[in-house]
Amino acid sequence: MYRTHNCGELRMENVGEEVVLSGWVQKSRDLGYMMYTDLRDRYGITQLIFNEQVTEKELFESARTLGREYVVRVKGKVIERQSKNPNIPTGNIEIEVTDLDILNASKVPPFTIEDDTDGGDDLRMKYRYLDLRRKPVQENLFFRSQLAVETRSYLSKEGFIEVETPVLIKSTPEGARDFVVPSRMNKGQFYALPQSPQTFKQILMVGGFDKYFQIVKCFRDEDLRADRQPEFTQIDCEMSFVTQEDILNTFEGLTRYLFKTCLDVELPQFPRMTYDDAMRLYGSDKPDVRFGMQFVELGKEDLPEGFPVFDSAELVVGINAEGQAGEYSNKDIKKLTSWMQRPQIGAKGLVYVKFNEDGSIKSSIGKFYSDEVLAQWGEKFGAKKGDMLLILSGEEEKTRKQLNELRLEMGSRMGLRKPDDYKPLWVVDFPLLEWDEDTERFHAMHHPFTSPKKEDVERMLNGDHETMKALRADAYDMVINGVEIGGGSIRIHDRDLQSKNFDLLGFTKEEAEAQFGFLLGAFEYGAPPHGGLAFGFDRLCAVMMGQNSIRDFIAFPKNNQGRDMMIDAPSPIHDEQFDELCIQLNLPEEEA
Amino acid sequence: MYRTHNCGELRMENVGEEVVLSGWVQKSRDLGYMMYTDLRDRYGITQLIFNEQVTEKELFESARTLGREYVVRVKGKVIERQSKNPNIPTGNIEIEVTDLDILNASKVPPFTIEDDTDGGDDLRMKYRYLDLRRKPVQENLFFRSQLAVETRSYLSKEGFIEVETPVLIKSTPEGARDFVVPSRMNKGQFYALPQSPQTFKQILMVGGFDKYFQIVKCFRDEDLRADRQPEFTQIDCEMSFVTQEDILNTFEGLTRYLFKTCLDVELPQFPRMTYDDAMRLYGSDKPDVRFGMQFVELGKEDLPEGFPVFDSAELVVGINAEGQAGEYSNKDIKKLTSWMQRPQIGAKGLVYVKFNEDGSIKSSIGKFYSDEVLAQWGEKFGAKKGDMLLILSGEEEKTRKQLNELRLEMGSRMGLRKPDDYKPLWVVDFPLLEWDEDTERFHAMHHPFTSPKKEDVERMLNGDHETMKALRADAYDMVINGVEIGGGSIRIHDRDLQSKNFDLLGFTKEEAEAQFGFLLGAFEYGAPPHGGLAFGFDRLCAVMMGQNSIRDFIAFPKNNQGRDMMIDAPSPIHDEQFDELCIQLNLPEEEA
Q1: Complex ipTM above 0.90?
Q2: Which domains does chain A have, with CATH numbers?
Q3: What's the pTM?
């Protein structure tokens, strides 16, 4: 037997018991005549004591050989500690060891197994098995496991059936890039890994499953950033005979349940904001509403001619950074301006207007506008003494995006984005289509299966090109603290409307049939009205734990080159494999 | 609003209520002045009534246009039925319809949506969305969903953490053939899809996770049979600081819980049988113990010389088919012999000995052996009057396998293999290695990470070639009704022992390092003793529901050519994709 108890459960009431524990040596303190060793497992830490006066000499010598991360089994008696440790649940007792078995030795780890480790990212990814022993990493993954349990529990109670959809499916050129898998049995053909189970869950609705969910791996072969992984996990859901309202209520319910059970946080009711309002007031379709600082636009009436930059701008828009007038020296403003001018943001400049505590007004464009005009702006922004306006101008869409970055940066600097202050909302009424000026074609704003709003169906079927740009969809995103947690839509369930949509998106009849013929076919055999949504599960974990990187919630993440540093994958394959799959490499000269 | 109730929940107490229902038209009966329509959804069937005398003419005409599988929404009043239907839960009521909305029309389905359909396999796979509407298919998938819920519930309560392991991993030539995925970012290199998360779950144990589980998709690129799919699902588990006994008890507990909660079946305690006994008594490592008919061997003492076939045979072994003497005419015996001689089984012949009710003995080899000798056999087999011995002879291993097939066939013919009679057992003490005469090398009987029994470790590290053949492993299979439901082992956690095992399996040092270096490395940093097992989830579903094909428990199965008939995958990919992945086709001439 390896243990009678784990390392986290012994208490005062166990004093006097003979116990067996197994675990890892966290650290030892050798006082010469006495040795204390912390024994660690997933459940906690228990102190072992080796006493030269009580213990056999051989055992004491053996205890002396224990290094960090050795795996041992000990037998001994639970005794009361002389100096108790109130910081750990087992802090009142210790184990007087009578038997010691070294189950496995350990080399000295390349970094410390502590909450704050000295290991760099690469080292920790390579020795992931050691990093996984650290408490913060374990806690993240335990949280993820709990979140999955609670998600399933809630959705099951609500009548959702979990159905596994296939991983080996078909490549479709829409959306992101597919990972593909050569088929040995169907030579020259390829499976694709799913970017989402979208069409399958719709097929399940056509098949009468009514309420479906799945916590499922999805795959995108895209260039990677900190919050993107080639494989990621979704909570994928679909319902039949529902309106958008039904779906929002169901998944607001799920989210509130998860926050309550996993974090003991009561979320407020989720406000709803139209896409148009989100773009107008925050310059983003995923606004962080933990703080205000909404956009205020300056119009012709606010801008007497004189400052050429504003005079010629499509949009002049700003935010009011409350209480910041005294915080920003000219040098600080200059730094902030440079930050805005980095290529990632690309602002041309940044205008400030300070309303100083002494009543004076100071602005980078004071020579173009009178104090009266600036005061009028202040009123429009609701600025008080001590506040500072930050104003951008230029082409409308770009300027809003830039101001969104500035608003978020100022929110962070001003401490208004607390990780444990959760502010959810629904963004609704997304446009159906997005016009791409470069390629002169429409893209689906959500995906090609999204339904236009009922009142827009007629216009979609019969309208002209300009009409299409104005179509609104029953599409919605759940946003928490500026992060898009989930999104979905009511789907098209009518063959003609779906064909029209494929048409608008530039599919030929043949392409639509080849790629989605099964779905169009399914719509001819009694498809019910349906809709759904998908949560980014990795991201939900991160947001709930107030962290930024999804990587810390994935047991075996890949790096930015898509590599698993521990197992060293991907890797070359054997000639036999190439032969069986009837493929060969075709590397560019310099790499071949 | 699409519905106030579903189609399975209205009862007498709802009579008088105004309700809205949505669903599919199952069928209609038009009596001229009156029309009855069955409305179906996942939850049940509710009868709608359109009454010419009550209903508006327009509504009545519209109802007449409804075809099978039309999707409709109706509004109406719940009324008591005149002729009640006790066969369905809603059989006491019907809906007097006042509003009818046709939500979607349907073409006539290519097969009937009934419990017993007239659709063939191919048609049903192509129109999977229609097949999914049939009750037996839905029930199988609902059962699967429930089984997953209960599995997670049990394991979570037992302290297991569900951790997702990666799908994009590394190709290893051991075991079955890998599906591979070309990497765009690491040109010329490939990921592989996991055949199981084996090494990752071991790494999680090294990482201190203590108890891990996952319900997880696995992949094997093998030629397919009815009970094999290229992607399949496992309940994958691993535990630290455990002995084989701990694991058997834990997962026997899980299995008993699943049978109790999902089927209301109390399983008996699982008997344990050594691999040697299973092979000796049943000729199989997954014996069906719903019935006896154990193998009985005839030795030199039972076989006076005279029948050359037996005289020269390595093994003479048979079974007693109770009460079958009178059931098998010479012609029947001949047929059974032919069945055994098919190439799939390959027996050379089949000897019978009948102990007739009248006391006479009849045998195909009566002229070689006296009645006294045959009677002596009868005693050895425990045969009574009316019984029939069936005896095979030949090379030991082959003969046992053939007799296993015969035993199962006789069990089926005699009605001894009832689907709802569940007889589980553990088969234990598997050999560690299997010697392959053809390739002259060892294969791992379970997998390369399986530990020899403690008492065999010394022999493994220092023994000679013959010793290796006799090594036993802490490896075990769970078998129910002749089906291997799960299997696992205690793993090696010592680097030297693991290296020795790779060595025995024919890996060079370099190969072992390239493929499993991370695991060997992990064993140097305090790997705990650990072990686990994996259940075939699809198969568990099928066995519990008393069915043979796992395909009926998979929402979107592939056919024997690995094709998804509905979406028509796999399929060709675009030139751009080939270019980005730096691969090209290399088809044999005739297919290019």
Answers
A1: yes
A2: 12-104 (2.40.50.140), 138-273+424-575 (3.30.930.10), 291-413 (3.30.1360.30)
A3: 0.95
